[in-house]
Each structure stands twice: as structure tokens, then as C-alpha cells.
Amino acid sequence: MPENETLHDLGLDEYKYGFVDEEKHVFRTKPGLTEEVVRQISAQKDEPEWMLEFRLKALGIYYSKPMPTWGGNLSDLERVLGEIYFYVRPQDKMEHSWDDVPEDIKTTFERLGIPEAEQKILAGVGAQYESEMVYHSLKKEWEDKGVIFDSIEEGLKNHPELFRKYFGTVIPSQDNKFAAMNSAVWSGGSFVYIPKGVELGTPLQAYFRVNQERMGQFERTLIIADEGSHAHYIEGCTAPVYSTESFHSGVIEIIVHKNARFRYTTIQNWSNNMYNLVTQRALVHENASMEWLDGNLGSKLTMKYPSCFLVGEGAHGEILSIAYAGNGQHHDTGGKVVHAAPRTTSSIVSKSISRGTGRSSYRGLCKIYEGAKHAKSNVECDALLINDTSRTDTYPYIEVDERDANVGHEATVSKVGDEQLFYLMSRGMSEEEAMALIVRGFIEPIAKELPLEYAVELNRLIDLEMEGSVG
Amino acid sequence: MNETTAMDPTILDPENTTATAPEGVTDTLNREKVEAYSAPEPAWLKERRMHAWEVYEQTPMPTTRLEEWRYTDLKEKLDLDTLAWPEVTECADDFGACPEGLQEAMRADRAASGHVWEIDGIVFHIDLEDDLAEKGVVLTSLRRAVDSHPQILKEYLATEAVPPESGKFEALNGALWTDGILLFVPRGVRLDLPVRVTRWASQAGVSIFSRTLIVAEPGSQVSLVDEILSDDFDAQTFVSDAVEVMAKDGAQVQYVSLQRLGRGAFYQSSQRTLAQRDSTLDTLNVSMGASTARVDLNARLLGPGANSDMLGLYFGDDNQHFHHNTSQDHVAPNTSSDLLYKGALDHNSRSVFRGIIKVHPKAQKTDAYQTNRNLLLSDDARADSLPNLEIQADDVRCSHGATVGQLDAESRFYLMSRGLTREQAERLVVLGFLGEVLSRLPLGGVVEKVTNVIEEKLRQV
User: Fold this and answer.
1) Do A336 and B398 touch (CB under 8 A)?
2) Interface ipTM
């Protein structure tokens, strides 16, 4: 650890991606969500008729479902949803060459360090600005092997059969109110196909940026990892700090076929005025493996529970979740594992830190269906409280319908130990430095799971803040 | 894939929980019944019952849309409309004339400080060691206490611990309780032996409402073993309990509930314990009988230094459904609680454990633990476990754990290698699994009694 580093220096409480660029767009809908808005979005995208029908049906489902009364405080959300723009088109078309991206948008992403990272370590990069992907590229060697890494709109246009076979199958519109909303107004996101047996050595990465004030972003990602393939997808999110709330509600569907391995990493660092309500789910087939690595640092309220539905024999699901809730933030996060086949295994590890008036809640489900013989699942949750105004909750649901299964759940809550502090301070550290070291030690079991590439990105989000300068 | 899961926002739908017409008003459970029942009672009690009835009418019947009732569907499990009011027969205070099952349970009891026998919600026998009575210990029926100890009832009965506002069934019990037990232990008095309460339900197709009130004054010590049992019923029988336990400063109280009702019973028990400064208030809930058993236990730690051990044990077979809903409320600083609920489930039986540790904002230096372990003995058994934490103070040590698993094959193999049959080995492993709970509450007679019941159940496996 660098010398004289304090908890404050970890930078978790500060937000350095809050800069605002001038609002420019070629089209945007009126504030609020109406049938007209849905039709306009569909028309803007020049979609096939079935997609418009799909959207309109989802809108009806959205209207019919009540606002959740569990989880975070959504009492203001009705008002917020009436004020935000559901669709903002920043430019006319998506670019595949970085040079063609409009200068101001380019500058924004350059400030976030994207082209640089792409050069060095990534197999492909996508960037979404407001409602549309503005840039998508994939290294040629992977393109040649049949890998598809496109915006979701291009996926629908260029690969209609593959798209239609899987779209909306993992997370149907009926799943929950916000999945229905996303299904009605989705825009942007990635379409990924990894062909049989292809192993991507380096990750694919997507960046999501909301610049417009009172903006709703609804990206939709569909990933198909075919038999025996192997890949890693990373998403990062940032937005400027406005006094009004913004809204982000993504739907991520992943199909992991037989013997494939897929890892999905999120570094969510939205500004503290963002509602972040996301549905992420993977369908995991025979002997396949799915890993969710979920880091929640930003947003006002996040409700997100990455899920693994283990439907093939021997499937494995893993969810690693880390949440940091500073002043005024609430992370209601966790994971769901559903065992629906024999010899399936899963593990959820959740670590959360609450500081100031922050609140972290773990909410998770472990369900073992009858017939999922020899299923095994283990859940571990640890919460660290920094101040006496901080709060943490744990709400696990364990449902076991099969005798030959083993399920365990454990959670602990603690504060930074006086003894640990005292020891480090006796070694010459200030209290703040000691605190920072302990916090780092606490998240280490998850941080060490990050691939090197990811660590680069996480360092951008945390360490750069520490030094007090971005771009 | 589209089944309702924990995250489905439709689970809690406020629009559907607002009741229009009062729910649960039947030919026998109605305002007229409360009025008639309380007619001979003093005004304060009558008022209290009528208030409870008001609350009952205003409270909607819990549905699976409520988190606390998600896994127990009352629509499916309970039909209040079929319930008659029990024949109130004043039983003769004669051991030999008691139902055989009741006699058997009483004979198995060891020495006690006092006894209470109750049939169908009416107490018909009470005895208490003379020297304890001289020291001011009160052990009496609630009906008698209305005349003999009105002050205690006015202060504690359905006020602080289980007021009608606690919920639908608590309100119903508050309006219609027929009798129950008052145990009052004065300051500094210690009872070496437990008080034994044995309750019997004899009539099928009726509803029975009883209450227990225990007040332990500062520095006193007492344990009460509350056993309820019956034969099997050929029609649904509703047995409702409300248990209120107060441990004042430095008091030590143990409350043990042993539920062995016959099949056909719907057992509903609301228990709340209030632990003041430096008191110890321990509970044990053993659920063996009834078709459906729902126990709500709320331990409130109200004074610094208060401690509650909360133990639970259940063994289900056939179609039994157990639902234990517990909460550990740490209100004051420097309090501790430790919960351990263990259960085995055979055949089609099902158990739900939902527990929550709540550490209130000022309850620093809290130690709170919660463990629920389940053993599934059959392919068709099911166990759901929801151990929750809500922590609003930072200087705390809290943890919880929950497991669901099958019989430990290695232990069984070891025992079989020592010459035991498979059945014997399994029996022993189950007994050992459940025995951990009993070993933590060494109360004379209870361990043997519970072990016998478990062994009886295991013989049917």
C-alpha cells in the first residue's frame, strides 16, 4: 500500500466521473413513458414488426405490475419516471472506427480511458452514450473465428434468427416490473456470440455513460456462449452528478451452453443520483460454468441480483459480489442460484462495506428443486460497518425440495476491530491509514479473483480517484 | 423459469392487502360471542376484549403476499368457518377422571414446584408448593386472576407483550381467550423446580383460545414447562396460544413449550419475551404434533446486559407443516441473544424457518447469533430457511447460518461398521443431530420426554 494512504484516499466516497459534457442529441423522446415513446423508439431503430409488438406487449405488462414494496425506497420513483427521457439518440449511426466517433463523445470516453485500454488488453470494445451504442469494435482475429460482438440493434438486424431464438427467453417480460419496462424501451447494449470451442483469451468490454440530465438508460444485452467456448465480458458504468435523479435499468440475458465457461464482470460506478435497477440472469447448461463478478460502488439505489439458473447436469454457478455504500447510498444486491438439475453446484460470496449513512443489503435466493440430486450450494456474506450511522441487512431465502442436497448459508457482521486498529497504529500508522488497510484486507478475497485486465479497470475507478485527477 | 421467486415484485402488492369486509368473522367467532363471553366480566376486561375484536375486524387475514406468511398459505391450511365453539364442561379436579393421554403425560413429569392442568382452554386443577405460596408466588388461572389479581392483569395482560395490534391471530386471541395461566414470582424468590403445565384438547372441530402470562420480578428465578397435547382429530381443530413473558432486572426465566397435538390440529402460538436489565430469558419450542404449527416468537432485549437463548426443535412426518417465525430485537446496548433451531423432516413434511436479528440504532455492543439446521430424511420433504439480519449499530457481533442437508452418510457408515443396522444407525444420527438442542437446556424431565417423542416418530420412519 502506498504510504500515508487513508480511507479517504481510497476515494470511494468521492466521485470523479461527475463531469458534464454539453448535451447534444439528434433525437429524443418527450419525458415519461407512453405508447408513443415506445413506438418512436421502435421507429428510430427501423425494427421488424414482431419487435414492436414485443415492446408494446411488455409495456402492458409494465403497467399491470405494481411497484415493488421491498428492497430500496422507491417512493420517489413514480415521479422520477414521469420526468426522465426514455430515449436520447446522441448521433446518427454507430461507428466501428474510433476516429469516426464525434469529437465530444470521443473526448468523454478518452477521459474514461477507453481507447487506451482497448489497444492494450481487450478483445473488443463497445461504448454506449445515452441510449445508443456509439462505437463497437472487435479484433480481427476473433472476427475471423466467427465471434460476434455487436450492438444489440445490429444483432437484431444482421443475425435475426440467432437473435430471435434467444431474445427474451432467459428473462421474459413478465419476470418483474423493470424487466417489463426494459423490454418495452430497450436501446443499446451488446449482442455477443462465441462460437463452439472458441476461447477468447482477453475480455470483451462495454462502457455505459449517461451524460444527459434526467435520462433513462435501458441497455439490453444478449450473450450466447456456444458449446465449449470460453469468454469474459466486462461492463463499466458512469454518469455526471446532477441534482435530479437519473434511471438505469438493464436486462442482461446469457446462455451458457454445454461445457462452456462465461464470466460477466460489472463495475458499477454511477453517480449518486442514479437509480440502478438491473435484471441479470444466466441459463447454464450441462457441465457449463457461469461466474458473475459484481462490483457496486456508485448509484443512489441499486437493486440487482445476478442469477444462475442451473438447468443442465453438472452446471456450476458462481456469484461474487462486493458493495460499498457511502453517505446516502443504498445497495440492495446479492444473487440468485436455482438448481434444477442433478450434481449442480453454486457459490455466492458477498462482501459489503457501509460507511456514513450508507446501507448495504444482501438479498439472495438459493433454490434446490426436487430431482436436483447431489446439488451443493454455499453462501457467505460478510458485512463491515464503519460508522454508527451505517446500516447492513441480510435477507437470504433458502428453499430446498431435494433430500440429496447440501445447502449452507453463513453471514457475519462486524465493525473494524479495535484490536486490529490498535495493532496497526502501534506499528506507526495513523488511524485512517490503518482503517484503509483493514478495508482493503476485507475486500481482498474478492479483489484477488479479478483478472489482471479487470484490475486495470478497477484501479482506474478507485486508485485514480485517490490521486485526485482524472484525464 | 417464470415461477414466483424471491425477487418478484408482485409478491408484495399493497393494493391487494387492503380488506373491505372484515375477514374471519364466522358463526361462532363474532362480536356477539365476545359480548356474551365478557358480559359477566369487569368493565376494564370487557373493554379490552372489545378493543381486541375491533382490531381483529380491521386486520386483514394474512396472505402469502406478506413476507411473514409467504410460505404458509392460510387459505389452504385453515378454515375458520368450520370451527364450532367448544362445549364448556367444568371438569372435575380428579386425576383419575382425566383423559388417558393427559394422565400419561402428567405421570411422565418429574418433580415440580406446581402443576396446572387445562382441558379445552379451561383450567381445572392448580397446585403449588406451600412455601412458595407463602413467599408470594402466584400460580393461578387467568379466570380466577380476574378477581384475585386484577392489578397484575390490568398491567400486563395483552398490553406490552402480545397486544391485539401484533396481528390477526393475536387480536382474535385477545378477544376470545377463555382461560390460561398467570405465574407471578415476587422479587428475589427462586423456584428450584419448574412449574408444569399440561394442556389437553379433547374436542374435534372447535377453536380453543388460551393465554399464558409470566411475570418474574427483579432477581427472581423460574422455569415453566408448557405441554399441549391431544389425540388425532377427525375435523380441523384450531388451537391458539398467546404467551407473554416478562423478566424484570436480573430475573432468570425459562419458558419451554412442548407441542404434541394430534393430526387435524392447526396450532398457532404467539410468544413475546421482554428481557430487562441483566435478566436471562430463555425459550425452547419443541414442535412435534399438529398438522400445521405456526409459532411466532419475538424476543425483545430491553435492558443492558439482557440475554436470551432461543432454542427450537421440530420433527415432521406425513404432511406436517411447521412454520417458526422468530425475531431477536436488540433495543438496548450490551445485550446478547443466541438462537438455535434444528429440525428433521420426513415423508411429505415441510418446515419454514424465518428468523430476523434486528439491532436497533443505539444497541451497541450487541452479540447476536442465529442458526437454523435442517435434515431432510425423505425425497418429498422440504425445508425453507430465511435467516435475516438488520443491523443499525456498528459495534456489534452478529452472525447467522442456515443449512439444509441429508443424513450424514459417514456417521451412518461408521455406526453400521460397528454392527448397527441401517435403521438403528440412522435413528442414532438423527437423535444426535437433534440432541444438540436439548443438551443446551438441561431441564429435568424435558429431555427424556422429548427424546421419547422423537424415538416414537423415528420408529415410524
Assistant:
1) no
2) 0.80
